[in-house]
Amino acid sequence: MDVSAHAALAAALFTLCILVSSSEPPCHVVVAGRTIRPGQLYVVAIHLCTEEVIRFTTSILRSGVVLRSATLSIPSGGIVQIPLKVPAKAVAGDYKLVIEGSTPRGNFYFYNATSLVYQPKSVAIVVQTSRPIYRALQTVYFRILVLQMDLKAYDDSMDVFIVDSEGLVMRRWLSVFTNNGIASLSYKLPEYVKDGVWMIKVKIHNQIEEQKIRVENYFNPYFEVFVDLPNYFCPDVGVLNASVWGMLPTQEYVRGNLSLSLSLRYHDRSEWINLWKRNTFAANGPVNVELDLNKISVETEERVTGYDLKLKAAMTDFLFGSSSSGFAITRSTAGRKSHSTRIRFLCDGSRIPFKPSQPIVLSVAVEGSSGHALSPAKIENSKLSVVIEKTMVDGSSANEEPVEIYPVDFEQETSDLISVDPDALETFPDTGVITLTVRPPPKSSTLRISAVLDTPDGKYATSIFCVLAVSPSGNIALHASTLAPKIDEYAVFHLTADVPIESFMYLVISKDNIVLADDIARGSHIAATTTSFSVTMSPDMAPAFRIVAFAVYNGSIMSDSVFLPVSAFNRYEMELTMNNAKDLRGDSVEIIVSGDEGAYIAVNSGREQHSYRLQAGNDISLSRVTNALMSFEENFKRLPKVTRRSLDGNSAEETRYYPSTGYGKTPDETFSSNGLVVISNLMPAKNDRHDSPDSCVYPSQYTCNSGGCYSEEAKCNGVPDCLDSSDEQNCENAPEDDYDYLTSRLSRSMYLYDAADGDWAWREIKKNDHEGIEFDPVDVPEVADDWIINAFSVSTRLGFSVLESPVKYSSRRGLSAHLEGPGKCRRGEQLGLRLIVHNRDPTRSLVLVQLKGSPYFKSIAIAGDGIISSYSATLAGGDRHILIYVQGGRQERLDLPIVPTVEQGLVEIHVLASSQAGRAAMTHQLDVIPEGAIVKRHTSAVVNLQNRAHSITYLDIPIEETPVVPYQAWRRYIFGSPACTISFTGSLLGPLLDPEDVSIETTLDRQGKGTDVRLYEFGLNIWTLRYRRVTTTLQGGKEEQERLNRANLLYGNILKRFLSDGSFTNWDNAPPSVWLSAWVLRVFSQAVYADWEYVLYIDKTIFNRALDWIVNFQTPEGKFVETDYYLETPLDRHFGSDRVKPSDAGVALTAHVILALHNCDSHVEGTTKTRVVEAIQRGQKYLESRASSLLDPFTISIAVWALYNIGSSQFQSSMNSLKGKLRMNTDGLPYWSSVDIPAPEIKYENQRPFRRPRLYTSGDSKAVEATSYGLLSMLADDGITTTTDNIVLWLQTMRMSNGGFVSTMDSLLAAEALTVYAQYARLVDVTKMAVRITSPADSSVDHLMLIRNRTDISVSETIQMNKVWGHINVIGRGAGLALVQLQMSYGVDDRALVDKPAEKNFDLTIREFYSAARNKSLVTIEVCTRWIRDHPRASGSAVLEVDIPTGYRLVESEADQLIQNGVHPTLRAVKTFEQKTVWFFDKIPSDWHCFNHSVRRWFGVANMTLHRGALLYEANARESFIQVLFNSTPLYTLSICEVCGSYQCPYCPYYNSTIRQCNLSRIFLLEISILIFLLVLSKRRCYE
C-alpha cells in the first residue's frame, strides 16, 4: 500500500470519528415558509441555542438540483435571517429545503431536508371588465390590476388571453407591460358568438388567473319587457315589491295587455312550480306588483332549503299587436323553516385552545342566514350579550354573570372578563361584527362562551368551546393590544411566560413567507411576567399577517401566535365629482377625479339597474383586491372573515378580516397552522408524530372536536366530515353558483348589454406628471337613466386606492326627445317618423317641435277629417311647427309623416324640440332605394399596357335613356331606379376596401351567414394583406393592424361552429363536413405568420383536433370521403356533358384534404403529426394512381396542385395532362372548364367594339376555381409566361362584382392565384400609367386616374354616375395593368324583365297573406321552392333573399325559432335586415317544400311599392339562380292614416289633440312668446 492510500484511509477514519463524536447536534431551531413561489425572496430564520458558532448552509432544491444556496456562520443566541431569491421562472417540481450544519472548520454536524409546497402564484391579479354580460359585436373593455406581495405595482410583462366557452384562444396579447401595475385592453366580439361563459386569462410566469364574462347572441325586438326584483330577499319580509314595464328603444313606455305569472323553484330541484297568473293593462309607465310571501304554498313552509321566485311578464302592444316578454328571478336567503337571522363566532370550528393568562380575541358576527348584512335599524333595536361558563382545573364549574356588550354604557358597565373596543361598538350596526377580548379566569381549564342576540322577532345564540392547552415543560402566551394596525404605524404585542426565560424570538409571516424575524431580551428571569414589544407595519405585511413567538426552555420549544389584519389601502384620499355646472343642458359633464400625484387613475361606469345591480364580480373593489392578496395564505378558508352581500345589489360584495389568537395546541401545530416548517433537534421527527392513529398531519389535515381528521378541502364544503360537524361550524354562506345565478336571473334586454352607452365613462388617466387631480369632460349618453361611476388608482408611492363608495349620476335631462323610423324606404313611400318627447320636470311644459324643411323631402298635410289618399296625398314643403303640452314626469308621442322627393340616395331629416327646460336636436338618416325587383349587371375590363403604350376601351351601359316603350303597357325599368358606379384600381385583387368594409355584401353583392361565408371574408382579408406584402405596397403598420383585427373578429365567428370532436359545421345544429373542415384548415394555415401573432393567433388546438378528426375519413386505398349526410360536396358539382367517372369520385375531395393536411402538418406534433404524415402518403398514392385516368379539368387541376405541394414524382406528367385540357374563348384567353365559358358580348357600333356586361353562365364558379388551380400549377412549373399573363386577363373578365368573382370559394382561390402571380410578375415595378374615364351622356364623368408609384397602385377610385345610359370611354397610356369595372343596377316591375339564368335550376313562388286586424300590421309570407334539374339530384347550399315591406321587421331570434321548429327540412339559418329576410338552406330538394314566416309592422308606412322581388341562388354557384317578382297591392293602397303614421289622424291613439285642449290664456300666450324668443336666439346654433 503506497503513501497516498495510507493518507486516504487516515482521512476516512478521521471523518468517521468526527461523525461519531457529533452524533448529538447542537441546539438549533430553523424556521421557514412551507410555500415557495416564483420570484419570491424566501427567508430562512435560524436560532442557535448553543454556546458555539455553527456554519449553516441553506439550499433550495428542485428535483435534486440546487436552485439557490447560501452559507452563513451564525453565533449563539438571537435569530438570523438568510434570504434566498427564488428564480422568477421557477416551475413546478419536487422542492426541498436542505439545512446543513457544520463547524467553522468544516466538520459536519447535521443534515436535514424537508419538503416544500410549490405555488405558481406570485402576484395578486384582479381583472375589471366594463360589464358582466356582453352580446355579439360588443367591445369588451377590461383592465388588469397586478400588485406584488409588497403591494407595489407589478412592472414586468404578462400574457393575456381571451378564451371562449370551449377553451379556445380567441385573442392573445404577449408581453404586455403595465402602467403603475395596470394594463388596459379591449377585444371586439364576433358578429355571432358561441354562447356561454368566456374567460379572460392572465398569465405571469406559471401563474394563471381567470375572470369570467358571459357572452351571448341577442337580437333587438320591437320592444322589451322589464321586470325589477331584488337579487335576494328574506322570507320573513312578508311582502316583496316588483315593477314591470314595457319600453321601446326610444324609452317610450308601451301600452298594452300585461300577463303576469309567478313560479317557484327549490334549490335542490330543477323544475319550476306555477303559483299564480294575473292579467292587467299597462297604460303609462311601470306596473307595481306585490308578492305576498306569506301566501306561498304550504309545502314551502315545511322545507328548510331555500328557493327562487320567478316573475314573468308578457305584454302585447295594443297598436301594432307585437308581443314581448321578460322575467326576473329573486333568491331567498333561507327556507321558510330556517331563521333569516343568525349569529356566529368568526373562528375555525367550535373548539379553540387557549394558554394560561392569554386573552382570547373573538369576533361575533350578526347577519342574515345567507351571509347578507342585517339592516342597521334591526341591530340598533337588538341586544347582544355574552355568557361564560367555566370549568376549573379541579373539576368544579361555575357560570359568570351575562355581560351585555351592545348597547353598553362604558361609564356604568364594567367587566373584568370581557372588554370591547369602542370603535367596534360604534360601527357594529353597520358592519354587524363586534370584536371582544375575553380574559380567562385564573385556574380555568375550559370555557364555553355563548353570544345571545335578542331581537324584536326572537333570540338567536351561538357558542364556542375554549380548552386550556398547557405543556408541562412551560408555556408562553402572546396577544395584541393593537387590533387594527395601519401601514407605517406600530402594532403592540404582549408576551407572558409561566417559566423564567431570558429571551424569545418572534416571526412576522405574511402570505406564507417570513417578512421579519427578531429576538426580544426580557431582562427578567421571573416567570409570569409580561413583556411588551412593538412591530412597525410595512406594506409587505398587508393585508394581514401572523406573528409567531417562540422560546427555548429546558430543551423544549414553547410557541404561540396571533393573526391581525392590516389596513393597507386607501392611504391617500380619492374623490370623484361629476360637474354639471359647465353644461346645464346635461349634454356633457366634467369628471373631476383626484388621487395621489403621478397615480394611474381609472374610471368606469355602469347602468345602475341593469348592470351594476347584478353584482356579478366584474368591477374592482377593495374587497376583491384584498381577497386576491389574502389568497396567498395556505389556509385562506380558515381565516376569520365576514363577507357581506347586498340583497338589492346596491353595493358591491364586501369582505372584512378580523383579528384572532392562534389555534395551535402544540409548537408543531402552531408553526404548521401558520404556514411554517420547522427543523430542530428540540422537536420530534415527523415520522414520530405520525405514529398515533388519532393525530392529524398538518397542514393537510385538521382535528375534529369529536376525534379524527378532516382535510382542508372538506372545510366548509357543506358536507359534514366530522361526527360532530365541527368542520362545518362557523362557516360563511357563500354559494358557489352565485355567478351563474346573478348573470342569468334577468331576461335579456338591450339595456342589460348596454352596447351603445355603457362605456361612456370608461376613462383612463395615464399621465405620470399630473398633480393628483384631473378634469375630464365627456359626453353624456342620450338615454335617460341612473349610472354608477366608480374609480380606482395606483400610486407608485402609496399603492392602491379606490373610492369609498361609487358616485351615482343621472343622465336625465329636463327635456329629452328621441326620433326613430325606418332606415330605408323605397322611392315614393310615405313614412311616419316616431318622435317621443319626455318632460322629466315635475311641472307641465309647453314644447315646440320643429320639422326642418329640406328640398329632399316634404311633409304630409292631412285634413281635419283625417281622410287622405295613399298615392295622392297633399304634400307641403318648408318647416313645420307643432306645439304640444307634456305633463310633468310624462311623455308624448308625435308621428311625423314625410315623403322623400329624391329618386334614390341618402336623406337627412332634422327635428328640434325646445321648451323652457331645454332643447333636443335630432337627425334621422333615410336611405331611399329603388322600387321593384333589382336587376344587376357588371362589366370588368383590364387596361392592359404590358406590351403597348396606348389603349382605348368602350364599355357599354345596357340601360336606355328612358324606360318608356312606345305603344307598350310595360316599361324597360322603373323611373329613377338605374344606378351605376365606375371603379378603378391598379390592384389585381380589385378595389382596396377598408378592413371593416370587407364582407360578402361589399365584394360579392350578396348576403351570407354560415361558416363558409365568414371563412371567405377571413381569407379575403388575409390574401389582401399578403398581396400588399408581396407587392410592397403596404404603407405603415396601421393597415396591417386593422386587417388583422378584422380577421381576428372573423376568426371568432368561424370558431362558433367548431365542435368538440374537431369538426366544423356550416350552421348551428348541422352535421359536420369533411370538405368544410379541410377548407377551414387550408385558409387558417395561410394566416399563421409569426409577425401577425401579436394580433391574430390561430390556436394550435384547432389544427390538432381538426386533423385528428379528418384523417378518420380516409379509406384504406387513400381516398377521403364526406360524412353520410352530404350526398356531394361543392367540389363534386359539375354541369355540362363531361361527367366525373364513378371511379374518379372523391378525387377532388382527396386532393382538397391533402392540401389541408400538407399546409397544417407543421402546426401539429406527436401522434397527430404521425397520423397526418401517414394520411398524406396514402393520399398521394391514391392521387397518383388516378391521375392518368382523370377527364374533368377541375378534378385534374386540383389534383395537380396537390401533387405539386406534396412533391410527387408524377407532377410533371399530370401537369402535361392539365395543359392538354386548356380551352380558349373568343377573345383568345385561356381557361379550364368542363363546359364552354363564352367571353362577354361585344357590340359594334360605328366600328367601335362596346364591351357589354357579362351574364351568368352555367359552370362559371367551377371554371374560376379550375383556372385558379391551373394558374398556381403553371406558375410553379414554368413561372411567368404569355399563357399565365392571358390566364390572369381571363380571370379578370369573370368578375361579377367589384370585389369578387362568382362565389366565395372561387373568389378566394382566385385571390390566392393572383397574389402568387403578382409576386412572380412584379408588375408594381413597371406600372406607371394615366387612365382617363369619360361618359358622353354624363358630363360629370371626366376623370383622370394616375398611377405613379406604389401608393397609387393601392388606391381605389369610385365614380358615381348621375345619368345612367350610353357608354364609358376608358383611355389608357403608359405601362402596366389596371382594372376598370362598371357596377350597374335597375328596378323592374314586369316578370318578363327579371334576371334569368343561362339554364333553369329552381322553381320559386311567393305569396302574401294579410291580417284583417290593425290594417295589415301582420303579413305572412309563404315561400315554396324546388330544384328542377336532373343532375345533380338536389342543389348545393342555397340562399333565398325575400324583400319585405318598408316598416315591417322580423326579429332574427324569432326566425331562428321557426327553423328549430322544422318548418323546412333543409332550412338551417336566417338573417334579417330592413327591407329583406335572408334564408339559408343546406340544399333545395327536387320536390316542393313550403314554409311561412310573418313580418310585423314596426313603423307606419303608406303608399308602399307595388312590386317586390325574391332571389334564390346556390351559395357556391351563384350562376344557378331564379329571380321572381310578386305584387303587394293591399299594402300599396294603405294611406298614412290607415297605418297611424301621422299625429294628424283623429282616429289613431296618438292623435295630437292639444290645440282643442288649450285655452288661449295670458300664460299660454306668454309661453309662446318665450318660445319664439328662444327659437330666434338658437336658430343659428340648431344645425351647424
Automatic annotation (TrEMBL):
Pfam families: A2M, A2M_BRD, A2M_recep, Ldl_recept_a, MG2, TED_complement
Domain Alpha-2-macroglobulin bait region: 476-606
Keywords recorded for this protein, A-Z: Disulfide bond, Signal
Alpha-macroglobulin receptor-binding domain sequence ranges: 1435-1526
Residue ranges occupied by any Alpha-2-macroglobulin domain in the UniProt entry: 759-851
Cystine connections: 704-722, 716-731
SMART domains: A2M, A2M_N_2, A2M_recep, LDLa
Extent of the signal sequence: 1-23
Domain of life of the source: Eukaryota
Stored SUPFAM superfamilies: Alpha-macroglobulin receptor domain, LDL receptor-like module, Terpenoid cyclases/Protein prenyltransferases
Name of the protein this chain belongs to: Complement component
